[in-house]
Amino acid sequence: MSQTDYQRLIDAETWAYIDLLDASYPPGAVEMTIAEQRAAYDTMCRVFQRPRPAGVVTTDQAFGGVPCRSYSCGAGRDVTVVYYHGGGFVVGGLESHDDICAEICARTEYDVVSVDYSLAPEVVFPRCFEDAWAAFAAISTARGGELLLCGDSAGGNLAAAVAHHARGRVDGRIKGQVLIYPGLGGDHSKGSFVTHAEAPQLTMADINFYAKVRTGGAEQPVDDPRFAPLKDSDFSGLPPTVVVTAECDPLASDGETYRDALLAAGGRAVWFNEPGMVHACLRARHMSARAAVFFDRVVDGLAHLGQGRWPY
């Protein structure tokens, strides 16, 4: 898709967000060293950082040996959202998504636990997943009530991978999952992977870089749902799922494919592909009306699932 097409698809508010983001975390950042990428990403996150909503209280503690940050607004709702941050398994952490998790907590009135899983290249697959699972298993033991899984980008991959792995291990506790522009291991030869291969904010070159770092340069597993949930052979027994993707994103088709796989297996799933949105648009939620709607999809999905509703 040409640049002219993106000028048509993406509105002025979102372009203003892209320009502001690119000023600190430029296109082609994957060509930097890992240390430089992380420094630039952290700087970018601070540019968009919002104060936590009033009444949200945080506690840093480990679950399953994995550093985590818990958010609560004291509402007394017996629901915990386990959140996995994005960043290609290479960048990000508790600070990068602090305001997002705090706003989810305030708006849903659910507790949120953000998981600071280990990053590549210091660790390689399956370590990121093992951290994600260890934290989730410990959270499910330590906390009563309902559990929801949520994550964006790489974190969406981990949330789904945990949901698949939890079958037969944490039966009945997971009431739903909300996946935000996740990379789930779909077919890169078709759909958005082709039409949006050069999209603003995330390109196929970026995706290939992150995959190589995640495996340490080794060949990618071909049928391991811990690596790519879409490679699973069984999609039955998964929790109700809301997938929210961005139209102008190579990963968008993974949302459609995953929804279809769950529906074909008799599950509940819905996919929203938000028009004119780009990868990582959660950060634009206070600058762009379209991104605000995108975030509403996420919050509403969690709110509905936590209350056992399926209005889709």
* Multimer state: single chain
The strands making up the biggest β-sheet line up spatially as 1-2-4-3-5-6-7-8
Class from helix and strand fractions = alpha/beta
Please compute the radius of gyration using only Cα atoms.
18 Å
Characterization of the model:
Helix 9 (252-264) links the parallel strand 7 (241-248) and strand 8 (269-278). This protein has helices at 3-9, 12-24, 34-48, 98-108, 127-142, 154-166, 192-195, 204-215, 252-264, 289-306; strands spanning 57-63, 66-72, 79-84, 111-115, 146-152, 174-180, 241-248, 269-278. It is of the alpha/beta class. Helix 2 crosses helix 3 (34-48) and helix 5 (127-142) crosses helix 6 (154-166). The chain is built from ten helices and eight strands. An eight-stranded mixed sheet has the order 1-2-4-3-5-6-7-8, sandwiched between helices. Helices cover 39% and strands 18% of the residues. The longest helix has 18 residues, at 289-306. The chain has a single domain, classed as Rossmann fold (3-Layer(aba) Sandwich).
Features:
312 residues; alpha/beta; Rossmann fold; eight-stranded mixed beta sheet; 10 helices; 8 strands; 18% strand; globular
Strand and helix layout:
Layout: H1 3-9, H2 12-24, H3 34-48, E1 57-63, E2 66-72, E3 79-84, H4 98-108, E4 111-115, H5 127-142, E5 146-152, H6 154-166, E6 174-180, H7 192-195, H8 204-215, E7 241-248, H9 252-264, E8 269-278, H10 289-306
Parallel strand pairs: 3-4, 3-5, 5-6, 6-7, 7-8
Antiparallel strand pairs: 1-2, 2-4
Helix pairs in contact: 2-3, 5-6
